[in-house]
Every structure is written in C-alpha cells, then in structure tokens.
Amino acid sequence: MVHDLVRRTARGGWWRVGAASTLGAALLGSVLVPQDGPQDAADVAAAPTTVAQRAVARETSPAVQRAAGSTTAYVGGVEVVRDVGTAAADVLRGTVFDDVDRDSRQARDEEGVAGVTVSNGLDVVVTDADGRYELPVRDGMTAFVTKPAGWDVPVDADGLPQFHYHHLPAGSPPLRYGGLEPTGPVPTAVNFPIARSEAEPAADEAFRCAVLGDVQTYSGAEVGHARDGAVRDLVERDDVGACGVLMLGDVAGDDLGLYPRIKQTMGVLDVPVRSVPGNHDIDFDATDPDHAFDTYKREMGPEYWSTDIGRVHVVGLNNVRYPCTPEEDDADGTRPHCADPENRPTYNGVIGEEQLAWLEADLAQVPEDHLVVVATHIPLVSVADATSTQHQTDDVLDLYALLEGRPAMALSGHTHSLEVLEPGDSFAGWRRAVGVRELPFPHYVAGAVSGDWYSGDLDADGLPMALQRDGVVPGYLALDLEGTEHQHTFLGVGRDEADQMSVSVSSPTWRRWFRTLDDWRRSAEAGGRTPPPVNANDLGDRRLVDRDDLQGDSWVVTNLWAGCHELARHGAGRRPRAGRGRADAAGAGREGPRRRRLGRPVGRDAAAAGGAPRLREHLGRRGRPGVPALPRHAVRARAGAAGPQRRRPDVPPVAGAPAGRPAGGPAPRHGAGDRPLRARAHRDGRARGGRGAPGAGLPHRGLRGRRRGLTRA
Fold first, then answer.
1. Residue 253: which of 287, 223, 297 has the closest Cα?
2. Domain 199-497 - what CATH class?
3. What would the pLDDT profile of 504-538 be if each residue is shown by its tens digit?
4. N- to C-terminal Cα distance for the chain?
5. Which sequence spans correspond to the domains of the chain?
6. ω before 323 within 30° of 0 (cis)?
7. What Cα–Cα distance (Å) separates residue 606 from each residue in 50, 562, 616?
8. Angle between helical axes of 353-363 and 396-403 (0-180°, round to 10)
9. Do 466 and 490 meet the contact criterion of CB atoms below 8 Å apart?
10. pTM for the whole structure
C-alpha cells in the first residue's frame, strides 16, 4: 500500500513527504520540503479552559499526535498549573496520577499513584497514598519523575519522554542558541501523568534497547547520513519498542540549531528516545556550568534522570563539566586543561557532588537485586584514553562506592571506538589518571553512529565509510536484557547482525606506506605545510601480496569488532605482567588475568608450513614509535620463502573454533552463561586518499579543528 504522507512538525510547520510503502521508508528515503497551506479544523485542539490545560493543549492536539508517527503513541506533556496567588515560593507540589484517558490532564476520576519517585535533582521523595509529593524549590532546578516499571510517561511529537519541569524564573542568560525561556514564579502544581504500559514486558521477560553513541551531526547532510544509516536500520529492525533508544551524548555536533531536525529524524522510530548530554551539546558561550546545557535541556530534556524497565534501573548522568576551573577540577595540578577557563575554556570528565548526592538518594528507592545501568557520555574509564585526565571520569570511585554490592553496567560513548570491558580488567593508566585498579562490573563503550565523523569514501548507499579509531565500522549496540541478565551485540550500520569482524593484510609495502604518511602527519602537526606524499591509491591492490612482501613478513589481521571471548578463554594461560603487552607509549599497561574484549591487539601466531599454533601477545601497539597499530585481535601467518608469487592469504584456523569459520567468540551473557555469537569475515572498502588505509593508525584533524580519532581498518 502506498501512502502520500503529510507530517506536521512540533514547531507548527508542515512537511510533505513523497509516496512510499511505509512510514519509515517515506520519512527516510524522501526529501522533506516545507509546505505552506491552511490548517483544517481537525488539526486545531479545542481551546483550553484553564491555565493548566493550556500547558498541555499543544502537545495533545490531534495534529501533533499524528506527527508522532503513530495514532497509538502516548503523546502529551507534564501538567503545569498556575493559579494566581496560591503557590508557595519555596515548595513545589503536585501529583503523579494515572492518566487513564491519556490526555495529560488529571480528571476527577483519575487517581494518584502511590510510591513513585520524584526529585528536584537533589532531593528525592516518594508519592503518598494519593500520589502527592512536595519538594524544596531551587532556582535552576529540574523536577522530574522516575518512570515506574510497567508504566509509560507521555512523549512529545518526536518521541522524547515528557517527565520533567525546568524551573528557571528569569530564563537563561543571553546564549546563541537561546537556552531556556523564563518560567516565572513557582507553579501552583506540577502534575506528572503516567499510564499503564501497553508495550513494556513483565519483570522477567526479555527486551532489547538500542544504544547509540555520538550521532554528532555538524550539518544537515550529516543528519541525512544518520537518518539513512542507523535510523533506517532501526526502522527496519523494529525490535526496540519496549525499551526504545538511548543516545549517549553528542546528540548534535556543536550546532545546537540542528536539534529540531535531529529530533524529527529520531521521531520516525515511534519509540521513546532518551539521551544524556555530551561535550558537543554544550552552549559554548555559557560562562557558568549552571547554564552550559540550557539549550540541550530545552530541546532534549534533563541533564540527568532515571527510569525503570522491568527489573532494570537506568540512570542517565551528565559527566561533562563546562567550563572546568582550576578551583573545582585542578586543585592537585593534574588537569592543566582546566587552568584558564576565561581565555581557554574547555570541559572535564566529572559527575559532581550534586549528581552523586541525587544518585545516592535515588538508589535508596531501588531494590538491591535490580540491575543498575549507568549511562554517561564520557567513559568512566576507557582503553582508548586510558591515561587521560580529561576523557575519563574523575569521581568514578565515588560512583563505584554507591553501586557496591549491586548488579551494574556502564554505557558510554565519546571515544569513537568500541570497547567491551569486563569485571577485573585493569590498565595502569586508569590507576594514575582516576584511581581505578580494576573494574567492578562491565563497562561498554558503544562506538559511534557517526564513526569517524562521517568521513571517508561513500558506499553504494551514499553513506561515508567513516571507520572508527579502532577500525570498527559505524554502528551501535543492541542491549538484550532479561530480568537482570544482559547481553550486547554490536550492529554495524547497514550490515547483517552476523557481521562482526573485518580482515586485512599487514605487509612491508603497507607498513612503509603508513610510516611515510605518519611521518608527514607528525611534520604537519609541527607546522609543516607540504601536501601528503602518498595516498591510498599508492598502495595498489591490497588484496594481493607479492613474493617480496611474503618473504618480508606479512600477516593477516582480523579485527573482531566487539572482541573475542574465546581468545580469553582458550588463551596462552599466562598472566601478563603489569605495564606490559597491550600498552601505549604513555604506559597504559594491561594488568589482571583477563585478555578479553579490549581495543588492543591479542596476537595468535601460526606457522604457515604447519606445526602447532602458538599464542603470544602481539608486539604492535598504538603509540609505539614507527609501528602502525594493528586492529584489535591479530592472526599472524608467517610465510616461507617458497610459495606463489601472488596469493590471497587465508586466515589460519583458530584452536577451539568451529571448522569452516573464524572464531568470532560469544558475547558474554552476564548471569546466564554464554550464548554463541556468529561471526563472518568481510572486507571493508577503501579509505579516502590521504586519510589512511586498512590498518593505519593515523590521527588527524578535520577542517573544523575538532579532535579526530584513529582511522584504520
């Protein structure tokens, strides 16, 4: 069936969408063209009769409900009541009520809901038998409700949950992107509607969440890439309705004026879209951390929050402080990037005392056997930035203390790499930077939808190759949960779920090419202005290896994107020494008993002429002078002097792997053993000339001067 769709935006404009077979395909595959024209009477909500009704009338109009993409969506908003002369200046009151008719207005026969958690961002209270609550008022606070399991909160026209009220009487200071409008005095009441969920599973039933890192669009064209890539995939998958989408910060790429279009694009999914802020969601003209995310709050929602789904308690935190200051962030002199906030303002990775105090009170209302999922933009710790005092979280140990004894998991973005870290993992850089000796629970860095900032050649679908800094294709995590058990799967944009690795060849020819380009990069960083001496075309056919390269030590490199659990389970059986093995030049040494799912190479040697395979740690590592980084896990085959002049190298079999396919390894299913994850080798396309090639660890800066990752296959 073909539909000619007309969609009304949340800002009241109209967009006509060309004919297509489904709603998702129509919005994803068509150019949106602004349309002028009158609104018919059916698109205008009945005139509100009270101030409270006016606060939600626009959100619940039939036109906006149709704009949400589904006539069954619970579209609405928080009920803000303002009766002249009745509000207390220092107390916020209201009711959490069962919105039976789903109109976001409490009717006489709609009862309050007891036992629901409500907060002002610091204090946490629980509603009484009638659903009522009282909270102290603070200027600049955001009051919000924690969605109880089995209930829904309303969403706006683009699927963003409406569970909060920002209170900023005078509004934001002058900001380029506007910030928050003045809210005026304390309302008489702020009532939070919730409704029985029609989609959420029972407490121990399985469900899937889509976890998106760094959509980070800097232009309308890049919004289109996100739409035609990850969003299209999610529309076609249609398996995240119960949980929705969690965006791990850097929703936008500095241009906060793109938020409306980004939200409209995400709204096609017709599922709740939650998010946390990132360092590219900042109002950079704000001079006070209290207003650094005012525009984000207006467009996306609270900086931090919590919600319950089944036996899972999801907590979103803002661990990006801007501008950081020497008084708050650099008292010990270890964070010099915060030394001059007036002339060189920047951000720092830290949660802060206020959020930690709120989290402590929030967790007091959560059963200790429920899984706590902590979502941040900057990783609590990471391998990619293991020695950094800016790109990890300063007060991570305080967070660990609050979660002690609970099943927990951490999700983050920021690094534009994919990392799967297990309990007990340890890197020396973590201890020096933020005091972490080993991980108490799993930490997942979800990769980036934008990959390497939408760079590189375009594929047949018009999407940039944009390999991430560890060679992983652009993509996102699918998080499967059942009770408190969980399993992750990395989903490459536009790829089958079975695609979990890539294969390339490291040859002397390639390494010479890389070093030539890397030397030029270093010269350019030192002020050199010569053009790149080589580009990807100088490599020739990278699928062919000649006799000289075979005799000169070539090997096959397999990049298992989410790591290989089998290498850890069936490995050499010896414990690496602290500070050795997978490390960079700054000393982010691997410690602990596990070689599991990390963004560093674990090598496996096999004699090409036969003989028993042997395992050893690979010497190649990021940061070692003159040695290009190898992606993830390397399978190295040494060829003898004899052999064909040219051949396509085969991947040697891996001990313990099923015959006929490489060892992709199962993703761990925490609390329920392991479930196999099929893996299939595939080859990536070419890198754009001058930006590296498969295997190249080549940091570079884009035209906007933002930090680039390592582009390699």
1. 223
2. alpha beta
3. 888 898 899 999 999 998 998 888 888 999 988 88
4. 42
5. 1-38, 48-195, 199-497
6. yes
7. 77, 23, 10
8. 10
9. no
10. 0.74
